[in-house]
Amino acid sequence: MLTRAPRGTKDILPEESFKWHYIEENIRKVTKLFGYEEIRTPVFEHTELFQRGVGDTTDIVQKEMYTFLDKGNRSITLKPEGTAGVARAYIENSLYAQAQPIKTYYITPVFRYEAPQSGRLRQHHQFGIEVFGAKEPSIDAEIIGLAMHLLNKLEVGHIHINISSIGCPRCRPDYQSALKDFLQDRYDGLCTSCQDRYYKNPLRILDCKEDTCQDLLKDVPVILDYLCKECSDHFELLKEYLTAMGLQFQVNPMIVRGLDYYTKTVFELIASEGKFKGTVCGGGRYDGLVEEFGGPSTSGIGFGMGIDRLLMVMEGQKTYIPDTRGLDVSFVTIGDKAKTEAIKLVTDLRDADISSDIDHVGRSIRAQFKYNDRIEVPWVCILGDDELDKGIIKLRNMKTGEEEDIALEKLTEVLKDRIN
Ligand code: ATP
Ligand code: MG
């Protein structure tokens, strides 16, 4: 137990964190480019927030939440998705009183009690977008474009945009009854979860991952034929705008998304090549959510992109990820006096923004050289009594093997010059 992380969790080790930084830096660049600002909400919220916001009939609320009582006997849940917390923060901090829209993004861990498997963790990480106060389909197109801009910048290929509309509280009931009519004769063949969904939320049956249920859905009526004028106009404009942005997409009426509060646009970005194949990003519009939480009637739209899955796709596609690890300079010191002097020098180098380090484990001279070879540091400074007496240090270029003597007080200046 002591040396095993909980099932479905993963350590991000020093040798791979640079990949996460690379993705996160690109997220920060792209969101800035599109005019989004970061929001950070707590990792846990009151359980009720997710029950209300995600919906009682969803897998997330029914089976997947990490819920516990805190010492004050409050029911607390680790965030199973990002939207509910941001919507709560929007209301609690009166962000609706500012000029709209409010365009936010976040990078956060997400917790779901799932059966762990490839691409399915109990703690995963999402890059999310949430926009409040914009009802026009141009924002729907914008966030899809933002996700694609990021993926293009990261040079991820084989991503397919799937879009649909799931209507609104005015037109969806008509579709729901048509769907129930269609499924009535097929009810006995549905899995037990879908039999439950049939009564509580039939739309969710379209999303079932069981093959037997999917087989029963051949020729199922599609929601797009039932949209009211407002929803269908909205959807037509979304398609027009995506086309204007030069994006190719597929209309797929089988995507409904896992969450209850979605209205109109839903979309998924699906990877068809990589170590993970499937949905890397899912999102949609949730015009009913803020009001559901007791705020003013407010449009909302967002997405969640799984960073763990994205990285698997990138690794499978052998996408180039620049390796930014490593020092510029390392010291080899001979004797106690040299070590103290090296501490002064490395302090100066770091003050000058030159990444550098000395030996901290008492290695022999030979072992210090070997270690520096292994970490592939480009510059090594060698300092012993001889050099100290002369007030110099030996600087070795590890690529060429060339060595030169540098006056101690010139070291920072010389290295600054060599490194840039
Ligand atoms: P799925 O259908 O795969 O269960 P979902 O509908 O539950 O996905 P969302 O709630 O839309 O997923 O989450 C947004 C994104 O977060 C997903 O597209 C996926 O990339 C990622 N994601 C969701 N659950 C997990 C998980 N358990 N492990 C890793 N990534 C996940
Ligand atoms: Mg899920």
Main traits of this protein?
BirA Bifunctional Protein, domain 2; five-stranded mixed sheet; binds adenosine-5'-triphosphate; 37% helix; alpha+beta; eight-stranded mixed sheet; binds magnesium ion
How would you portray this structure in words?
With about 425 residues, the chain is an alpha+beta fold. The protein folds into three domains: about 15-170 and about 230-315, 2-Layer Sandwich (BirA Bifunctional Protein, domain 2), CATH 3.30.930.10; about 175-225, no CATH class; about 330-415, Anticodon-binding domain (Rossmann fold), CATH 3.40.50. About 35% of the residues lie in helices and about 20% in strands. β3 (about 65-70) and β4 form a beta hairpin. It is elongated and about 95 Å long. The two termini are about 50 Å apart. The relative contact order is 0.12. The model has no long low-confidence stretch (mean pLDDT about 95). The structure holds adenosine-5'-triphosphate (ATP) and magnesium ion (MG). Magnesium ion binds next to loops.
